[in-house]
Each structure stands twice: as structure tokens, then as C-alpha cells.
Amino acid sequence: MVLLLPRHLPLLLASTFLSRAVSVSAFTPTNLSCASSINQKTGVPISNSVMGASSQNNANGGEGRIYPELLVLDLDACTWDQEMYQMPALPSSTVKGDLNGRGEGAIGVMSGPHKISLHKGSLVGLQEHADGKYGSMKIAFASSADTPFAEKIGRASLKMLEVLPGLTVWDLVVGRDWNGQDVNQIGRQPPLNSNKAATHFPRLREITGIRYDRMLFFDDCNWGDHCGNVQKRCKETDTKTGPAIMRTPSGIRESDWRKGLENYVAQALRL
């Protein structure tokens, strides 16, 4: 169903109206081009597993703002500054420092002689997410880490790097957003492979129940256009629309984080 708004309505009113309309239809069963909307692995209906409050609030913040229901982050050279396949060891220690003026915490983890750190935009965005700025929006990771060992290094790093003092990335994303359930799609071992459009995103769609057109995807795209591929191949059949995307070839800068959110709003207003 297409909603037509009079052109003279202010953008703020239009945004609020559309976001409320979206919340009615966002979780209506629909035929998918890439995945089912029920958790085939566990047999548990999505609404009873990890959807949480997202279907009620539609990830709307205050003042009529529109945010994605699911923000998906690539890891290597995107969320953080290293490639896990190049790291020689599981992280063994942390590097303490200033967390963007929010106190002292683990700003890095050491893999042998290499320090793994969040990019500035990733840290700022995750801190704002921790503060509840983005309503009921949730975050998940989609990374095609090259080897099983690289995947282990990535997961260990998420459990050590801090967003705020005492709050790790893992605590925030897995612990708070998903009530302890690990929905992240990390690696390329079966059932995953290197093609995120074919494996990572369909699995996220299935496990979370969140529509592709309610997602925003960040990826550096330095090894291939993952963003374009996902947007092209993973579409809802009713809107013919996939996730909004943001390419970050220099890693997530604060300006990239803001622009990605703007891209999502622009797409949502077209639906």
C-alpha cells in the first residue's frame, strides 16, 4: 500500500505519519526474496524470540525522528581499524584510554603487537545507541571474516572493547539489544559464505524478523561492493526495496555515521 501525503505538509509531520504507518505493516507476514520470516533453526516464532519492542516502537526516537529498526555493521576496516585475518593471536590485553570524553576504558585490544581499535564514528554511534538516542533501534554485525580463527579474534575483541567504562560492545549489542542471544553473522564458514547478500542478510532477516527495508548497512566495500550487492539482492517483495546503505572505505567516521542515518530517512520517506 502506498501512502500519498499532501505536498504542503511539513517534513516533520510527514516523517511522523509515515513512521506510524510503517509500524502497522513492518511485521506483517510477507513473501521474501532472500529468506523466511520464521526461525527455521529453532522453530520458535520470531515474535517470541528476539524481536523485542521493535515492532511496537518502529525504532522512532523523539520529535518524530525516523531510525532503522536494525543497523548492520561490518567489522574489519569498517567498525574497527584492523583486518582480523591479519591478526596473529587472540587478544590478550586491553589498552586503556579516553572514551570520547565519557571516561576511561578499553579503547584497544592487543593481538600480538597489533592494536585493534574502534573507528571514531563507530565509538560515537555506539555511545549514542547506549544512551538511547535511537529509540528501539537494534544493532547486529555482518562480517565475512576469512578464517575460523579470524572469527574467534573478532568475537573476542567485541567482548573486550568498551563503548563506555564497564560496557563492552558485546554487552551493548548482544546483552542489551538481543537479551543475550547472539544474532550476529560473523565469518564465512557454513552456513555462511563470503557473499553477505546470499547468507548473512537472509539469516538476519530470518532470525530477527526485521524487514530488509527497515535496515541500514555500513560496510567499507574495499574488497567488493557488499553494500550494493545486499541492496540489490535482498529486497522485500511488496516495496521492492532493500536495506539503506553507507559505504565507508576509510572506516566509519562520525560524518559517515550521520550520513548513513540520513540515507535511511531518505529511503523511508520514499516508501
What does this structure look like?
The protein is α/β, with parallel strands linked by helices and 271 residues long. 33% of the residues lie in helices and 16% in strands. The strands form three sheets. A five-stranded parallel β-sheet has the order 8-5-1-9-10, sandwiched between helices. Strands 2-3-4 form a three-stranded antiparallel β-sheet, with no helix packed on it. Strands 6-7 form a two-stranded antiparallel sheet. The N terminus is likely disordered.
Q: Roughly what percent helix?
A: 25-40%
What is the succession of H and E elements?
Answer: HHEHEEEHEHEEHEHEHEH
Strand order of the largest sheet: 8-5-1-9-10
Question: Separation of termini?
Answer: 9 Å
Share in β-strands: 15-25%
What coarse outline follows from CA principal-axis ratios?
globular
Question: What structural category characterises the helix and strand content?
Answer: alpha/beta
Report on the biggest sheet.
5 strands, parallel
List how many beta strands DSSP finds. 10
Provide the low-confidence segments as ranges.
1-33, 35-57
Q: What is the arithmetic mean of pLDDT?
A: 83
Instruction: Please work out how many helical segments DSSP would assign.
Output: 9
Alpha carbon gyration radius: 18 Å
Short description:
The protein is α/β, with parallel strands linked by helices and 271 residues long. 33% of the residues lie in helices and 16% in strands.
